[in-house]
Amino acid sequence: MNMPFYVSPEQLMKDRADFARKGIARGRSVVVLAYAGGIAFATENPSRALHKISEIYDRIGFAAVGKYNEFENLRVAGVRYADMRGYSYDRSDVTARGLANAYAQTLGTVFITESKPLEVEIVVAEVGARPADDQIYRLTYDGTVADEHGFVVMGGQAEQLGRKVKEGWREDLSLGEALRLAVAALGSGEGGTPRTIEATQLEVAVLERDRPRRAFRRLTGQVLADLLADGGSPAADAPPAGDARPVPEGGPPEPSTGTPDDQPTDGPDDRPADGSTDEPDEGPGDSGTSGGTSH
Known about the structure:
The protein has 6 helices and 10 strands. By secondary structure, the protein is α+β, with helices and mostly antiparallel strands. It has one domain (9-261): Aminohydrolase, N-terminal nucleophile (Ntn) domain (Glutamine Phosphoribosylpyrophosphate, subunit 1, domain 1), CATH 3.60.20.10. The strands form 2 sheets. Strands 8-1-2-9-10 form a 5-stranded antiparallel β-sheet. Strands 3-4-5-6-7 form a 5-stranded antiparallel β-sheet. The protein is globular and about 70 Å long.
């Protein structure tokens, strides 16, 4: 008679945690930090279609590291959660805290019950009317939620990069200063040898406090290059020429109720948070059994 294979619960949880951490560490780091005008997201990502930074709802952003297919399923589930809650109640009832709690339940359930945990780490951020109202939540593979203040670094050499961001971060950073700090941290890399990351190799987005309704905006091209330059001019903060809703000099535009078009259309993450047909049908619970690559 064969003896059943036995592993203690403590060892099983430790093995799962080690497995998830190794998968997350293989992904490129993401830096999320608050600045005077909102919240900025930055990561090294040469792909123009497979985004790690996305919009979830009007004033809520999402960033992730780990396996792309797994955190993409979580993003889609978050969009559905936000749309359903906003439709059933009110748009103001969709909050980063509620979304973080929903993600925590999914991550924790998969970690305990499935044979393989999700190899992901995510940040859910919401920009408020004032800096004190900003919310940044970090969620790990086992469903642990941390309410962060100021900045978050996850994936890759997160501990080393976090120390560099901590040295230069302050609450009154301008957008250009915040992005230069984030890119400098991302370029510090292994061994402490700094390297230059070109604007074309970056994925950058912001949640702008003064932007009406939809606060999320991607920064690309010459706008991003100007902001990363040491002497970036204030004009660099304006939307790119192709943006259909530029901010006029006299003040912000009126809220638009039409189809949003201020996002690029070359990837699934750029679709508005209203249930696009481009998005996969998988829910958050399906992502624990599928494979993928670190992103």
